[in-house]
Amino acid sequence: MLSERETKRYGRQMMMHGWGEAGQLKLKKATVFVAGAGGLGSPLSIYLAVAGVGHIRICDFDAPELTNLNRQILHNDSRIGVNKAESARQTLTQLNPDIQVTAVTEKITAQNAETLIGNADILVDCMDNFDTRFVLNDVAVKKRIPLVHGSVWGMDGRLSFFHSPETPCLRCLYWEGPPKELFPVLGATPAVIGSLQAMEVVKYITGIGTLLKSKLLIWEGSTVSFQTLKIRKNPQCISCGR
Description:
The chain has one domain: 3-Layer(aba) Sandwich (Rossmann fold), CATH 3.40.50. The protein contains 9 helices and 8 strands. Helix 4 (41-51) packs parallel to helix 5 (84-95) and helix 4 (41-51) packs parallel to helix 9. By secondary structure, the protein is α/β, with parallel strands linked by helices. It is globular, with a radius of gyration of 17 Å. The protein has helices at residues 4-9, 11-14, 20-29, 41-51, 84-95, 113-117, 130-143, 170-173, 188-206; strands at 31-35, 55-59, 100-104, 122-125, 147-153, 156-162, 215-220, 225-230.
């Protein structure tokens, strides 16, 4: 059951049609694995925390630098040099002391990904490199759990919801990743995409709304425009294909 404090805290979202106490309890019982505590992981995890997701497992092996602070709002100047996952844990528990936040400080690899993810109900890709994205995708396909993908570049962003075998997977969309590079990004861009990722996670857990399954949402910040493209399964996909 929800406590009196929780009922009051989440009252405005519980007013939505179909939500109520039952929807809030689903959030309270859920575990979300967040891969990356940077630009996307910051708004995503903040909004999951204040929505009342019961357990957030946030993973990042890196530490914030001054150049990160235009977009990575989980961190501040006093946290430079502190592990990002631990910094995220401090911020999120201050925002909502009623939830559990676990800082996972290891680097995600093909060898440890399943162990790090554990019993999470849903994965969220907030990474900035495709090698790790593909590792997450492979685990999601194997364990048949959803993966919410987000990416940004400059003032543009992309978003999709994968849940194999019902939908295509990330490798159906991207056969291989782009070359690694230092790319531009405005802080408001991951704020938009990370918030939309949080929306997809909450919709999935509560069962409210329509998910972005088999679709790619493209946001162009310079023109303030969205477009949605259909994604099809690739029968030759090395992750989910036959």
